[in-house]
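Quick one, tokens below:
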């Protein structure tokens, strides 16, 4: 999850996590130690975010201009544009290599400071850093939220499924936009193979996702665990993830709804 960018934190912390990973894998720094590739230590998207955005391509203002542009595209003008794109791509690749080398050097410097730290200590320090994120222990899914049929366009979010609550995050943001425990969820189910519906009190949330089965199975797992601890088992088994009938959750699985508190979630780490 760290390497895929699902633990929102600073670059400094990401470099420290990478150094701890190296200490755990290779023990103390040595020039002879095997070096993993940078993408095995540090989220690649952070490096790509440093690159300048592609230049804006002006649109032709009239039909005549579009026609002239089309005629020129197959001639010298088109060759010039292709050459410019190739040169720009080459510069970006060079810039990416420079950023990667700079980041690896910073990671190695932090690794050198960990001399003498044993593998269990490195792992414990790694988990302690990750636990600082309130969503620790949740599994995150990329979803597009359709709040209602008449609402605005879909919003790309992270859907976090944890042992105590379900949360919605704006990608890269450490605090959730909304969070609700299982007692607030009245039902859930799959409308089709790419649409998942979650009913929270008086709201119906529709998610477009390629991981409908995984979300439904994880919700059923946490529901069964919570129900076994705090509530009588339902008389009928939950429906399958792709059933047209939604799963109905038993109530009283959590106290009255309250705002998200800034504290680590309880549960096993998926980092």
């Amino acid at each position: 999850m760290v390497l895929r960018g699902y633990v929102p934190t600073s670059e400094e912390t990401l470099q420290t996590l990478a150094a701890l990973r190296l200490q755990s894998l290779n023990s103390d720094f040595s020039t002879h130690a095997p070096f993993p590739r940078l993408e095995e230590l540090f989220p690649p998207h952070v490096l790509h975010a440093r690159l300048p955005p592609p230049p804006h391509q002006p649109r032709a203002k009239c039909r005549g201009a579009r026609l002239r542009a089309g005629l020129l595209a197959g001639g010298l003008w088109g060759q010039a544009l292709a050459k410019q794109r190739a040169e720009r791509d080459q510069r970006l690749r060079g810039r990416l290599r420079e950023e990667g080398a700079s980041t690896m050097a910073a990671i190695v410097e932090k690794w050198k400071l960990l001399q003498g730290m044993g593998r269990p200590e490195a792992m414990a320090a790694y988990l302690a850093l990750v636990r600082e994120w309130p969503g620790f222990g949740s599994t995150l899914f990329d979803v597009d939220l359709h709040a209602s049929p008449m609402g605005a366009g879909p919003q790309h979010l992270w859907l976090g499924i944890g042992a105590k609550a379900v949360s919605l995050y704006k990608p890269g943001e450490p605090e959730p936009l909304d969070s609700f425990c299982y007692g607030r969820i009245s039902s859930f189910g799959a409308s089709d193979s790419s649409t998942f519906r979650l009913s929270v009190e008086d709201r119906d949330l529709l998610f477009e996702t390629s991981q409908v089965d995984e979300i439904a199975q994880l919700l059923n797992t946490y529901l069964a665990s919570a129900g076994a601890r705090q509530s009588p088992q339902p008389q009928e088994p939950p429906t399958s993830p792709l059933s047209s009938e939604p799963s109905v959750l038993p109530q009283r699985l959590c106290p009255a709804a309250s705002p998200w508190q800034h504290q680590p979630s309880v549960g096993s780490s998926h980092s």
